[in-house]
């Protein structure tokens, strides 16, 4: 999926607007929205099949350390992708190898995670998450997750 | 036959009783047409859809969005047999309107986003799960008469 220059600008502008700390966007984003149930935990509740990848965690509840940590890791990854939006393929190479060869996640699950990120963005920023921002973020997340999963 | 707990019924009726159909319906349809532009193919007779602003101000889209929400209302009032309630609508969308049923899921996702924006922190994971279950049943019923 090709991101146009307009898409990239929309994503960069929106992300900058919703992040108060440019250096630590991922964690900060999670801190701001933690009262709205972060996307990762939301996904585990709404789509229970995604929990199968985390059977090694004793406690999959939202307050558990592994869930919080992994949620923050995922959002930090998304924030990093925003910074590397001009060359996502190169930027996401190591993540792609991890998810394709080691974790072997069914790609359908990333569409589900993407949907939950969009739901949380809508809840957290109802006035800024316009249809125009929605389509740019949807295309961006599709590109990020596609590249994160596909082996080169 | 889909099973609904008392809590799920209560969640769905509560969400819909707090909605302004004239507001939420159009918002969801507009969002769908912008986020998934191929869906515009079904609205060629609706006039100007050339850009996001045109879509947002198109009166035919506004009216149709409201109509869709009233259609969903029928499912809310007949939760125990959405399949039969929507049999005619399914035939209409298949035989007359020729809508690819995959598009129903796209509109459902846009409606979820609009409801999430409206309810804010009240749109908890549990409520999201119930709302999405309801929409999945609706989407399935709408696709049932395709052959």
TrEMBL record, chain A:
The keyword Magnesium does not apply. Keywords: Heme, Iron, Metal-binding, Oxygen transport, Transport. GO terms for cellular component: blood microparticle; haptoglobin-hemoglobin complex; hemoglobin complex. Gene3D superfamilies: Globins. Residues 2-152 form the Globin domain. SUPFAM superfamilies: Globin-like. One of its GO terms (biological process) is hydrogen peroxide catabolic process. The keyword Repeat does not apply. InterPro entries: Globin (IPR000971), Globin-like_sf (IPR009050), Globin/Proto (IPR012292), Hemoglobin_a-typ (IPR002338), Hemoglobin_oxygen_transport (IPR050056). Pfam families: Globin. PROSITE patterns: GLOBIN (PS01033). One of its GO terms (molecular function) is haptoglobin binding. Belongs to the globin family. This is Globin domain-containing protein. It comes from Xiphophorus couchianus.
Automatic annotation (TrEMBL), chain B:
Keywords: Heme, Iron, Metal-binding, Oxygen transport, Transport. Pfam families: Globin. GO terms for cellular component: blood microparticle; haptoglobin-hemoglobin complex; hemoglobin complex. GO terms for biological process: hydrogen peroxide catabolic process. One of its GO terms (molecular function) is peroxidase activity. InterPro entries: Globin, Globin-like_sf, Globin/Proto, Hemoglobin_b, Hemoglobin_oxygen_transport. Residues 3-147 form the Globin domain. It comes from the Eukaryota. Belongs to the globin family. This is Hemoglobin beta embryonic-3.
